[in-house]
Amino acid sequence: MEKKKQNYLSLRESRKIIHYNIKQMKYYERLKKRKVNPSFYTTVMKDPNNILEIENLDTNFFTDNGTVKSVNGVSFSIPKGKVVGVVGESGCGKSVTSLSIMQLVQAPQGQIVGGTIRFNTDDLGMNENGEKLAYDIAKMPMKDMYNVRGKDITMIFQEPMTSLNPVFTIGYQLDEVMFIHYPQTTKEEAKKHSLEMLNQVGISMPERVYSSYPHELSGGMRQRVMIAMALAGNPKLIIADEPTTALDVTIQAQILELLKSIQKKTGCAIMLITHDLGVIAETADEVVVMYAGRVIEKGTVREIFHNPLHPYTIGLQKSKPLINTDTKEPLYSIPGQVPNPINMPNTCFFKDRCSRCINKCNGEYPKEVQVSDTHFVSCYLYDEKEGE
Ligand SMILES: Nc1ncnc2c1ncn2[C@@H]1O[C@H](COP(=O)(O)OP(=O)(O)OP(=O)(O)O)[C@@H](O)[C@H]1O
Ligand code: SF4
Ligand SMILES: [Mg+2]
């Protein structure tokens, strides 16, 4: 009887969840559609050198089985002109975090329900106290978000074919970006700009690619086109969600090299999401490690690779294949599974998989501990007040 109660929802429970979901979804959808004064979503940057500051972000999915807290109190910043790598195993909330920044979470089930996403825009200037004004994307109505998305913040996805429209030429789709964000652009100006963008991403015959359809290009070329499209509006932040996972290793290296050179040339910041620690080590300046919807460790690339602290980050490093070793040991994998996202424990989410548990780990979720100016970790082992 007890087992049945744990694994199945009764009709009554199911109805209760559906009613709750409908109420929540209607509430958040209404919030996104209402007309508000821009002051409602204007805030100030904590540090004007950051392009983005995410603080306590909560994004939920209201599913028929209950509420999934896909992003659960996530906080991190992206400094201007830097590459911030976001890493963590499948389902830990990397994509939902990036989609929240773009306000592209699958609605109505997926909704940002709390927190702040401060975007350092040039549109607003300073307030009377000399503080840099910013948009709070978490509060921005959908209509106003159109001015930011695709222009100031752009996104590159894993599979370019899902983002490119198969029935229009590359040129048509590139020009469209200009017409949307700069409506006064003439056809000739748009074409000239699109060809320049194709040139910038290393496409040697831009005219030919301009008049091609997506299916006529290789995977690597399509990803270059996506990068050109992301660059067209002159963005301040590019979010790249697993941009090289669908490509073979040599093309992967070229695309990463291209992203790095674009970042240097244009000065934009990049949020790079990947499973691959090697990609992070090569490309990122700072690293954010996520686990089960939370940030469990963050720091500079040096800190995370030379001094990983959280047992999960250490496990991730250990499970990385190495080529310059002749060990016959099987590749390490972190034992156990992520807890059920609908019913997360009140303790550390990594507790059931952790080999370094101490008594204090039975307490509430560990607070973030600062171990250097730039290095933070959520684990009782490093909390002097709480540790043993
Ligand atoms: N449309 C959706 N409906 C319900 N739950 C969702 C939806 N999209 C994501 N989720 C849930 O949100 C959580 C985080 O998903 P997310 O896609 O952000 O993971 P991820 O870290 O990007 O994983 P991957 O590395 O596999 O891309 C997962 O538990 C997933 O089941
Ligand atoms: S808080 Fe405890 S259980 Fe969680 S990772 Fe640290 S040592 Fe392991
Ligand atoms: Mg993902």
Q: Which features characterize this protein?
A:
8-stranded mixed β-sheet; binds adenosine-5'-triphosphate; 388 residues; 13 strands; single chain; binds magnesium ion
Summarize the structure.
The chain is an alpha/beta fold. The protein contains 13 helices and 13 strands.
Explain what the structure shows.
The chain has 13 helices and 13 strands. It is of the alpha/beta class. An 8-stranded mixed β-sheet has the order 7-8-9-4-10-11-13-12, with helices on both faces. It has a 5-stranded antiparallel β-sheet with strand order 1-6-5-2-3. A hairpin with a 2-residue loop joins strand 2 (50-63) and strand 3 (66-79). The chain starts with a helix and ends in an 11-residue tail after the last strand. The model has no long low-confidence stretch (mean pLDDT 91). The structure holds adenosine-5'-triphosphate, iron/sulfur cluster and magnesium ion. Residues 61, 63, 68, 70, 88, 90-96, 106, 109-110, 275, 341 line the site of adenosine-5'-triphosphate.
